């Protein structure tokens, strides 16, 4: 009796390859925190839920800059709850700038992809699997969230908010070597340098919301530094 062969569509085959590839990859989320004790348990729970439901291998690296509100204590409890293989607390003694927080987190990342986002819930973790799918579809070096495309929206969001991004780890390492900014302008400089180096960038439309609890990591002096950094960036690129 002749065996029956079931033909598969090219789309089905491609999706199976993407699923297998995603399972082989590991995604390291860098979460810089300062006074985020209320937000941190929620953002971690949402990230864990999103990754687990999508079958994605992950780790979440919390970089706390000496928060006086006890954020570090909360992070230690989360590390115990979810396991130190999933939640890694890598604190610093004081606020040293957003750019250096990412550099510090990178030293401890074991994933081959890096996701950087805020702990204040201005970016919902439900969008993370979309970033991963987008990267696989176009084989992009970087995937950035944008509120200016597709169905992206903004709710109580202002210009101080930064953008969620996904990077190939080796690309982020090279960009960090090129960047001179240390504060909030760091992320903007990263994209400018990425375009100069001809890295490919995909975009995903996402909605932004203002922080739920806690304190912004962007103070008055940092706003001045941000503007100065922009002037320097435009003058040197």
From TrEMBL:
InterPro entries: DPM1-like, Glyco_trans_2-like, Nucleotide-diphossugar_trans. This is Dolichol-phosphate mannosyltransferase subunit 1. It comes from Sapajus apella (Brown-capped capuchin). The lineage of its organism: Eukaryota, Metazoa, Chordata, Craniata, Vertebrata. It is found in: Endoplasmic reticulum. Keywords: Endoplasmic reticulum, Glycosyltransferase, Transferase. The keyword Endoplasmic reticulum applies. Belongs to the glycosyltransferase 2 family. The keyword Glycosyltransferase applies. GO terms for cellular component: endoplasmic reticulum membrane. One of its GO terms (molecular function) is dolichyl-phosphate beta-D-mannosyltransferase activity. Gene3D superfamilies: Spore Coat Polysaccharide Biosynthesis Protein SpsA, Chain A. Residues 28-179 form the Glycosyltransferase 2-like domain. One of its GO terms (biological process) is protein O-linked glycosylation via mannose. Pathway: Protein modification; protein glycosylation. Component of the dolichol-phosphate mannose (DPM) synthase complex. Its EC number is 2.4.1.83. Transfers mannose from GDP-mannose to dolichol monophosphate to form dolichol phosphate mannose (Dol-P-Man) which is the mannosyl donor in pathways leading to N-glycosylation, glycosyl phosphatidylinositol membrane anchoring, and O-mannosylation of proteins; catalytic subunit of the dolichol-phosphate mannose (DPM) synthase complex. It holds the Pfam family Glycos_transf_2. It catalyses: a di-trans,poly-cis-dolichyl phosphate + GDP-alpha-D-mannose = a di-trans,poly-cis-dolichyl beta-D-mannosyl phosphate + GDP.
